[in-house]
Design goal:
This protein is of the alpha/beta class and 242 residues long. The chain is 36% helix and 24% strand. The strands form two sheets. Strands 6-7-8-3-9-10 form a six-stranded mixed beta sheet, sandwiched between helices. Strands 2-1-4-5 form a four-stranded antiparallel beta sheet, covered by helices on one side.
Length: 242
Amino acid sequence: MEAAVLAAVDVRKRFGALTVLDGVHLALHKGEVVGIVGPNGAGKTTLLSVLSGALLADAGSVVYDGRDVTSKGAAERCKLGIARTHQVPRPFVGMTVFENVLVGATAGGKRRGTDAYNLCLQVLDQCALGHVANRRAEGLGLLQRKRLELARALAVEPAVLLLDEIGGGLTDAESTELVQTVAGLRDRGIAVLWIEHIVHVLLQVVNRLVCMDAGRIIAEGEPQAVVSQAAVIDAYLGGGKR
């Protein structure tokens, strides 16, 4: 198998006396969708934050495209090609939907002028936001804010996309559209790491599934095999240690 486009190598993170990530090893390859499941407090979002550079690891390393980026912050990693969404949407208030996406294309990505404008229109259409392009971002409902999170990340034209519960609150039809969108990103060679509590949505598109509990990866592999493991059922359904 070709080298990983993004890898966590023995990554550790503590908040005071609490160990949140405890020696995590994870590799993500080009054109691969990897799902992450696990109970609340398992360390899933913290792992995404460490991979994106929003948080720096206390120990271990993060490698992107063969390059150690452990000490680089989120802005630098974004410009290199690592984009993420947040579980709680974080739009730029006081700006329109279009302007939010334009920030991704220009500040996070490399597009300028008409080139950036055209990319934003494509991304807004892809995320079903074209009809609200001129609306202020803070006026959107939750589901449209989630779509804006995705659109802003896609405008960066990332090689790696980190998704944090982007499917939460969606209807079955909207979940199907999201799965199709993620499958299309995979077909374009984008590597996707996706945290989601709605396991049946993940199973429709992921190549590999990872289960975390108490800051560690307790299972990893073929999706159906992972969800069938006793340790995963115990942790995910609430019987395991937190």
